[in-house]
Amino acid sequence: MTETLNEGLKREIQIVVPATELDSRLSARLEQLKGQVKLNGFRPGKVPTAHLRRLYGKSAMAEIVQELLNENARKTLEERGERAAVQPNFELPESEDETGDILSGKRDLAYKMTYEVLPQFTVGEVTGIKIDRPVAEVTDEELDAEVAKLARDSSEYQPKDGEAENGDRLTISYVGKIDGEAFEGGADENGMVQIGSGRFIPGFEEQLIGAKKGDERVLNVTFPEEYGAKQLAGKAATFDVTVKEVSAPVAVTVDDEWAKKFGIESLEKLRETIREQMQNQLNVATRTKIKRQLLDQLDERHSFELPPTMVEQEFENVWRQVTQDLERSGRSFEDEETTEEAAKADYRKIAERRVRLGLVLSEIGEQNAIQVTDEELQRALVDRIRQFPGQEKEVYDFYKSNPEALASLRAPIFEEKVVDHLLTLADITDRTVSREELFKDDEDADAAA
Question: Residues annotated as region Disordered (predicted)?
Fold first, then answer.
């Protein structure tokens, strides 16, 4: 074993495995096979080794070489006291003659192992990090509004003969046009629209107020600038609408009997359940904001060299998501008022931040003996499996046979446990805010996170 490169976090090691060792391992492997293989003309365990070598020698040697690569990588890192940032890369002989001789046990296995090591750094001061914790409580008015919304959403509708009013549901056929030409995806023979729901293009629902069954109307609307379909965003359009039916909601009596429709024994219990769900949403938002503050300050307190391959892999993950989102929405970098080059530079910084914080949190977790228990990992696996009804066994088998996939479930649990530990050391000041302020958009912070 000879080190041929030691530059920053990059390492390159030249390793030679003598042909005699390869041949010795192959002989041992073939001896094992003797008692396992069944060949016509030979009694069990009596197949000559030379015959086995001709039949299985190269395939057995290929397995031995793979085992040696992994074994030597582990041994090399242990002896050097290093931790690889990513899986080491092996540069093996490429010529068929060399490969053939190695698999036949006639030539030394000489190869190059390259890898990047995890950086060594000192964790900055984490005690007393100042956190401003925005706290919001569900008000009675918000709870009443949510219960009323649930009542509206669970209402049954009955056809009526009069004019459509706010809250009524209409069955319509429509054809959307731009500059007089129908556009793709802009027609429906039996569309449903509830006036006041805000689910259609701005102005669409309002122009149906007063309509009756059988009415034909031409609605004039403008698609929002941020509309998902790029070819429609910001454009004026008309919709030729025919009203097929007007239905009014049947008034719901909000009482214990209504609550039982949701499998809950009383209205009081239903209100408690809804309040708890709403409060959980607020708590998640609070958690997100204080975690962002914590990570921002950790990022500011740490600066060290990052493994290039880790950064590149993280960037590729981020960039793939960005381009897929743009493709789905039909938008471009120009629509986002940037260029691909500038966007790549921004997202590479995000990738670097993620890698840096991942290493910092990992080091803090290790120093404080923070671990993910088998029970916690099992719960995460069960939650993941539930997302794929009908494919439970396939998903279970995939994660159990794929260490990297299982690690992807462990990582967020570990991160949250480290964050919890750091928050116990932080200087946290609670600040009461409204629901609106808690959910107020912060694009810069969202991008950084």
Answer: 81-101
Digit-coded pLDDT (tens) for 370-380: 999 999 999 99
Where does CATH 3.10.50.40 sit in the chain?
155-251
**Dihedral of CA 137/141/147/149: which sign?**
negative
Quote the radius of gyration of the chain (alpha carbons, Å).
32
For residues 63-77, give the mean pLDDT: 94
Residue range 28-43, pLDDT digits in tens: 888 877 766 777 667 6
| Cβ atoms 425, 368 nearer than 8 A | no
Top CATH class of 155-251 equals: alpha beta
Helix (H) or strand (E) holding 131: strand 130-135
Which residues of the chain does CATH 3.30.70.1050 include? 2-116
CATH number among 3.20.20.140, 3.40.1440.10, 3.30.70.1050, 3.40.430.10, domain 2-116: 3.30.70.1050
The dihedrals phi and psi of 190, each to the nearest 5 degrees, come to -140, 60
Q: How many residues does the chain have?
A: 449
**pLDDT tens-digit readout, 239-266:** 999 999 999 999 889 999 999 999 999 9
Confidence of residue 443 (pLDDT cuts 50, 70, 90): very low
The DSSP annotation for 384-426 comes to HHHTSTT-HHHHHHHHHT-HHHHHHHHHHHHHHHHHHHHHHHS
What distance lies between CA 196 and its chain's CA centroid? 34
Mean local confidence (pLDDT), 204-220: 96
